[in-house]
Fold this sequence. Notes:
By secondary structure, this protein is an all-beta fold. The chain has strands at 25-26, 29-30, 34-37, 43-45, 50-55, 69-74, 81-86, 88-90, 95-97, 102-106, 119-126, 129-131. Helices cover 0% and strands 36% of the residues.
Amino acid sequence: MILHPPTAFGPRLTDARGSGAWDAPRGRRKHKGLDWETAPWGLVHAPMDGLVVREAKPYRQPKGDINTGLLLEGTGAWEGWSLKLFYCSALVIGAQVRAREPIAVARPMREEYAGITPHVHLALLRGGTAFDPTPYLEKKSA
């Protein structure tokens, strides 16, 4: 099973706000996802085949325009898995999508988080448990 990169960029490395890697420190907790760099207002593509079920919000309390995202339930080889993409606005809800199809538009983040690299957050889930998406990501050929 392969996850396709959601944007043409790469993983968010360390910036003024920390690291975008799986298990990076977040105060008293660990980062249970992977941040993928993007351009503000850039297209975000489906990392896997699936159904865009609904919007998903990363925060319980409003956080400006970045408190947006979507839930993608996997189909085919990804059945039983789901993926939450945060800091993006869904282009479709309730639609079946194929990997690499545009499904969202990235939101600008720097107004909310000064010094942060613009990115989308990928949270890979199975049965409510978060998994590191890194080993599943398509490797770029040289």
